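## tool: complex_structure
## caller: assistant
## args:
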Amino acid sequence: MRVNLTVNGRPMTADDVWEGESLLYVLRERLGLPGAKNACEQGECGSCTVYLDGTPVCACLVAAGQAEGRDVVTVEGLATSGGGPDAGLSDVQRAFVDAGAVQCGFCTPGLVVQAHALLADAEGVPRDADIREALAGNLCRCTGYEKILDAVRLAAARRAGADSGFRT
Amino acid sequence: MDFLRPRTWAEALALKAGRPEATPLQGGTDVMVEINLDKGRPAALLDLTPIPELREWSREGVEIRVGAGVTYSRLIAELGTELPGLAQASRTVGSPQIRNRGTVAGNLGAASPAGDSHPPLLACGAVVEAESVRGTRLIPIGEFYTGVKRNALAPDELIRAVRVPAATGPQYFSKIGTRNAMVIAVCSFAVALHPSGRRVGTGIGSAAPTPRHAPRAEDFASGELDWDGRRPLDPGVARRFGELVAASAAPIDDVRGRAAYRTHALAVMARRALGWAWDDFRGNS
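## result:
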C-alpha cells in the first residue's frame, strides 16, 4: 500500500508498504531517515522515539498505515539550519554533546526527542524526578544516565537563562 | 494482510461485521509487538485511530464514559479527579511514549490477566460498552474477562467505550514490579470505597487466569468498617482483609514471580491499600 505523511515538515510518500509494517521501518528503510533506531521492536527501549502529531511515541509500535496524513518529526528534524558553531544542532542536541551524554550513541536519538518533548512542556528547569519519569522509557545500556540527566538540566538551564543561542 | 481504515464508527462496525477476524488497532502497544516479533499475523488490521469520537470522554450522569481511543496520558491528565484509581493504574503503564498511545479499551481487548486497567475497573464496577451492527451491549466488568487473554466480545463487536462510575470515595492502585517503569505487573491490586452504599470494591490483577474481584474480602470490609463514626481501621481487620484478598487469587509460578510470592504480596498490598483509602476517607470527614 501507499502511505502519505509529512516528515520533518516535508510531504513524503512511501510505496509498496506492507500492511503490518511499522512507521519505524518506513522511516528508516523507505524514507532514508535512519536517526530513529531499531532495537527492541516492542516499545521497551525508546530508541525509536519520534513525534507523531506533536506527541512522542515509539515509532516501532505505530503501524505505517496509521501515519497516513499525519505529521512526523524525527531526530533529524530537530536540527536547525544556519551558520555558527551550533549549526545543525538543536539546543537539546548541543547539551548532549557538551555534557558528554553520548557513549555508543544508539539510544541518543530517542533520548534527544524525548528530552526535547519534556522541555517543550516544562516551565523552567524540571525536577530530577520529572526528568527521570520523562526518560523512564528510554534505555541506555552504556550506563550513561547521569550524563544524560546532566544534559537535560543543562539544556533546561540554558533555556531558562534565555541564552537564545541555544534555542531551536 | 489487509489494512482497513474506517473513517466513521458506523463504517468500522460494518467492516468488523464483514471481517470478524480483523484485529482492532488503536495504540498498537500490544498488536504491533505481536507483528514485529512475528508472534502472530492478523488476517487484517482494523485501524480505529481515524475515528474522532473514540478519542472523547464525557460525563453521563454518575458515570464517566471513556471513549475507546482515550490514551492513558489523557486519562491521567484529564480524569485524575473523577477516576483516581484508573488514573493511578494508568500512571504505572509502560513509559510516557507507551501511555501516549495505549488505551484502556486496548487493555480490555487484549484481556491480559496482567493488564493494569483491570483491577481499578473491577473495584469501581465499570461497564464495557460493546457495539456491533446488531446494536449496543453493556457488559459488566465482572463478566467481561472469560479466560487468559479472552473476553466476552462477540466476533463482530468492537469496544466503543468503557463506562466507569465517577469516584464517590478514595481509590488506590498498587502494583509489584522490578522497577517503576516498563513493568508488567507481578501482581496488582485496586481498592475503591463507595461510602454511599457502604461498600468496598476490589480488583486483583496478574494473580489468576483473569482479573477478578475478591468478593469475600469486599463483604468482610464493607461490614467491618465504621462508615458513620469513621474510627481508625482496626489492624486486625486490615490484616484479615489482606488474607481474604489473597485467598481469592489463584496465582501460578511464571517468569515474573512465584505463586507463593504473589499470594504474600497481594495480602500486603490489599492491607496497605485499604489503610490508605480509609485514612483518606477519615481525613475528609
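## assistant note: The two ends of chain B are 58 Å apart (CA to CA). The mean pLDDT of chain B is 97. Handing back to user.
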